[in-house]
Amino acid sequence: MYYQDIVRTDLALNTIIYFSIEEPKFVVNILNTMHIQLEHN
User: What domain of life does the UniProt record list for this protein's source (predicted)?
Assistant: First the structure.
């Protein structure tokens, strides 16, 4: 259980790192969208 949680977190971090290197505009768009949603809520 604990090990799977670590793997899942590691996979998420690797995905974020990958996108931040390969698709920085994509990440910026997601962050902007999240920010706009937070502002409206």
Answer: Bacteria
